[in-house]
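anyone seen this seq b4? input:
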Amino acid sequence: MYGRSTACLLLMLHILTANLAGQIDRPGRSPDALPDFHIWLPENLEATAPAFRNSLRRPVPSLASPGFPQISASAGTIFSGTVTRIDHRVATSRQPVETVSITFHVENAIRGVMRGEDLTISQWIGLWSAGQRYRVGERVLLFLYPRSKLGLTSCVGGQIGRFAVDARGHVLLAPRHLLAFRADPVLGGRSRVPFSDFALAVRRAGEEE
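predicted toks r here
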């Protein structure tokens, strides 16, 4: 148990060090850039480490060949929407890790959420510090894991489960998506997809599970 807790501590310290290194001398930083929250480490790491590890344990698809069906099957929530609010949440007795809450206005819903509602998710601050960030006004389509016991979630497979959405509501596929989903009959070879076609790809993926 001590060895695993120590490994967890070292991982968080590594992320913290990388984050702090990136804060030095950023002359071109935009005034409306997102805040760089610090990482809070529990005082009683030995007691909180098991719950913390379990909150992050997810069935991540193989990065070598994730496949759209695997990405879809791992998601508890799939939707497109606009980021409306971002809040930093300190650790408490009920929530032993520091988090960032992100609120979205849902524009189109596929799974686990309703169109038109405001959805707030909680993400471990370490993921934020590692680069998995959002900004108010940003439009995205997300595949999110089911919430953990601590109420945390994140994008399936990291950035592979996150897509940008343009002003017309089209889903944009980055090079990583084009490579991973090149064999998909709906998405394969397309860098810009109407939401209706993207929803069709999710339904087809569900039939292949």
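The helical segments are 2-21, 45-56, 68-74, 125-129, 175-180, 195-208. Residues 1-52, 54-64 have pLDDT under 50 and may be disordered. kinda curious what u guys think
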